[in-house]
C-alpha cells in the first residue's frame, strides 16, 4: 500500500511524514506540488510547514498547485487524505473541509506537547484509536485557531465529525476546542497538531501519533 | 490606466487578534480615541485603460476565489482613477 506525501515550496514536515508512513508499514512516496501526478498512491498526506511562505493566507496558494487538482478529485472519490497543520489549512482553503484556521488568539506561535482526545475513531485515519483515548503529540503553529459559523459548528458536532479536541486549556481560541475534523465520508481528515512527530519516543513526546498512519494502512487493506 | 482596489476584512464575527493587539497598543501611545480596531488587507490591481465589465466580473471572481476566503472574510471591489 502506497502513501504519498506532497512537498510544496516551504513545506517542512514532509520527511517526518514520509518516515511515519513507512514506520507504520506503508510504502511512502514523495510527491511534488508542480506535477499533476499521484504516482498510483492509495492515500495522500499534506504535511506541515509554510507552503508558498504562507503568503496571502495559509494554504491559499497551495490549493491551486497542479498536484492539488488530482488530490481533490481522488479525495472526492474516497481516497484517504490527511492534512496536518499547514495541510489542514490547505484542506479548508480547498473547501474539502469546512471552516478556516486563523491567527492564534494570543498571537503567539505555539510549540509544545499537547494532549488531545480522539472523539471519532471511525475515520480512515483514526480507526486504530479508541473513542475517548487521550494522546500526547506536538502542536506547533501560529494560525491554528479553528473558526466556522454557528451552523457549520452545530453540524460538525451533531454529525460526530470532530475527530480530536484539545484537552485542558484552549491553546489557540479554536471553537469548541477543535483540533481536527473530518468530512461526511470520513476519508478526509484535517488535524492541527503533528502525529508524524510522535511516532517514536526517541524523538517525540510519545509514540501516540503512529496510530494515524497504521489506521490508514488498515483502511486500505480492508 | 486604472487601479482596481480590493479590500478584504475578516467577518465581524471572526476574532481578529491582530486588530485587538493594535487596539491595545494605541492607548499606550496616548491615543485614547479607539473603541476597537479591525485589521484587513488591500490589493491594488493595475489594468490598462478603463476596466471593462468583463474584467470587473473576472476581478470579482478572483476576489471570491483567491484574494478573500469567503468562509471568514468579506471583500469590496472599487475602481480608483
Summarize this structure briefly:
The complex is a heterodimer of chains A (222) and B (81). Chain A is of the alpha/beta class and 222 residues long.
Main attributes of the structure:
heterodimer, A: 222 residues, alpha/beta, Rossmann fold, B: 81 residues, alpha+beta, Mth169, Chain: A, three-stranded antiparallel β-sheet, 33% helix
What's the topology here?
The complex is a heterodimer of chains A (222) and B (81).
Chain A: E1 2-7, H1 14-23, E2 27-32, E3 43-46, H2 66-76, E4 81-84, H3 86-93, E5 100-102, E6 110-118, E7 134-141, E8 145-147, H4 150-158, E9 162-166, E10 178-182, E11 188-191, H5 210-221
Parallel strand pairs in A: 1-2, 1-3, 3-4, 4-11
Antiparallel strand pairs in A: 5-8, 6-7, 6-9, 9-10, 10-11
Chain B: E1 2-10, H1 17-28, E2 40-47, H2 53-67, E3 73-80
Antiparallel strand pairs in B: 1-2, 1-3
Amino acid at each position: 500500500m502506497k502513501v504519498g506525501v506532497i512537498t510544496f515550496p516551504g513545506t517542512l514536515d514532509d520527511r517526518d511524514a514520509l518516515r511515519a508512513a513507512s514506520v507504520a508499514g506503508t510504502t511512502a512516496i514523495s510527491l511534488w506540488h508542480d506535477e499533476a501526478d499521484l504516482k498510483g498512491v492509495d492515500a495522500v498526506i499534506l504535511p506541515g510547514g509554510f507552503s508558498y511562505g504562507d503568503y496571502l493566507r495559509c494554504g491559499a496558494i497551495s490549493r491551486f498547485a497542479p498536484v492539488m487538482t488530482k488530490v481533490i478529485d481522488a479525495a472526492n472519490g474516497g481516497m484517504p487524505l490527511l492534512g496536518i497543520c499547514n495541510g489542514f489549512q490547505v484542506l479548508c482553503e480547498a473547501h474539502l473541509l469546512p471552516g478556516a484556521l486563523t491567527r492564534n488568539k494570543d498571537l503567539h506561535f505555539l510549540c509544545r506537547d499537547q494532549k488531545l482526545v480522539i472523539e471519532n475513531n471511525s475515520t480512515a485515519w483514526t480507526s486504530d484509536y479508541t473513542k475517548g483515548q487521550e494522546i500526547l503529540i506536538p502542536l506547533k503553529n501560529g494560525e491554528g485557531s479553528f473558526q466556522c459559523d454557528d451552523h457549520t459548528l452545530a453540524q460538525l458536532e451533531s454529525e460526530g465529525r470532530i475527530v480530536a479536541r484539545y484537552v485542558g486549556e484552549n491553546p489557540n481560541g479554536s471553537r469548541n476546542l477543535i483540533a481536527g475534523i473530518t468530512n461526511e465520508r470520513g476519508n478526509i481528515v484535517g488535524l492541527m497538531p503533528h502525529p508524524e512527530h510522535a511516532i517514536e519516543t526517541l524523538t517525540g513526546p510519545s509514540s501516540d501519533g503512529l496510530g494515524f498512519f497504521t489506521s490508514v494502512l488498515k483502511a486500505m487493506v480492508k | 490606466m486604472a487601479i482596481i482596489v480590493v479590500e478584504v476584512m475578516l467577518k465581524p464575527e471572526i476574532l481578529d487578534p491582530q486588530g485587538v493587539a493594535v487596539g491595545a497598543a494605541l492607548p499606550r501611545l496616548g491615543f485614547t480615541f479607539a473603541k476597537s480596531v479591525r485589521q484587513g488587507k488591500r490589493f491594488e490591481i493595475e489594468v490598462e485603460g478603463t476596466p471593462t465589465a468583463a474584467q470587473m466580473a473576472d476581478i470579482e471572481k478572483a476576489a471570491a476565489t483567491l484574494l478573500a476566503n469567503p468562509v471568514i472574510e468579506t471583500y469590496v471591489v472599487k475602481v480608483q482613477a
